[in-house]
Amino acid sequence: MRIPFTKMQGAGNDFVVLDETQGRLGLGAAHYRFLGDRHFGVGADQILTVRPAPSADVDFEYVIHNADGNEVEQCGNGARCFARFVHDRGLTTKDTIRVQTMKGVIAPRLTADGRVTVDMGPPRFVLEDIPFDGAGLAWQPMGSWGNWPLVLVDSAQVAPLLIATVSMGNPHAVTLVDNVDTAPVVAQGPQVQASPRFPEGVNVGFMQVVNRSHIRLRVFERGVGETLACGTGACAAVVAGIRLGLLDATVDVQTHGGVLTINWAGADAPVFMTGPATTVFQGEIELPDNLTDNP
Ligand SMILES: N[C@@H](CCC[C@H](N)C(=O)O)C(=O)O
């Protein structure tokens, strides 16, 4: 089967975008893995699928698969690319687009400067919502919030890693580091992910606070590995930093792939994320017949 696709990126977090507004392509996990494969497929961190609105109060549905083929709840950089995609293809003339995701409705808005601002909804801290099992851990207060001392799986380190846990629809753990350039992202990211305290896995953010309105961030993503940027990771890190008393309401997040601006007024307010969304190229790809969902 031959299918059309669009390759996009937002702050270097890259996507294969598929249009299912006229009908389902009938893809499974193996197809998504193939499309995300940088050697045999197109190559992407996530595969985004655009579908018709499932109800009258939204404009579209947007489905996200990680490069490992698993469907996930939310993707911030993808939301900006989704908005650019439906607008540039003439699928809508609206500047603000309401879209159904697995974990609720979000609303990207195309701005006059060419960037996209997304209302990502409010962050969630209830442990069952993340989900995170904190049973038996001595929560360590800091600012108006606190950190969990997480014992890393397969780690030689003596002291537990202090993490803040946040859900942006998808699960995030954020830890403070002195310098993201030397932070053990690739070593500790998988160790945090291996913790049975995250039954649905977790995205792991390493945050360096430069000042109250500027952080540097690297994220080891669930189902992918380290990416050049993670939109929900940027939201989670800023929310964590604000609650820990380290950051103001508006923060520029420097990632390896670009800058995202995050704003959060606190409590039940939604998190707003602003950043770029770019089409890289379009094409068609032949999907091999022998792909199996049981590799
Ligand atoms: N890159 C994304 C997040 C994609 C999903 C994530 N890997 C997960 O498994 O939750 C973003 O920009 O938010």
TrEMBL record:
The keyword Protease does not apply. Coiled coil: none annotated. InterPro entries: DAP_epimerase_AS (IPR018510), DAP_epimerase_DapF (IPR001653). GO terms for cellular component: cytosol. It comes from the Bacteria. GO terms for biological process: lysine biosynthetic process via diaminopimelate. Substrate binds at residues 13, 46, 66, 76-77, 170, 203, 221-222, 231-232. One of its GO terms (molecular function) is diaminopimelate epimerase activity. The record marks 172, 221 as: Could be important to modulate the pK values of the two catalytic cysteine residues. Pathway: Amino-acid biosynthesis; L-lysine biosynthesis via DAP pathway; DL-2,6-diaminopimelate from LL-2,6-diaminopimelate: step 1/1. This is Diaminopimelate epimerase. It comes from Rhodoferax saidenbachensis.
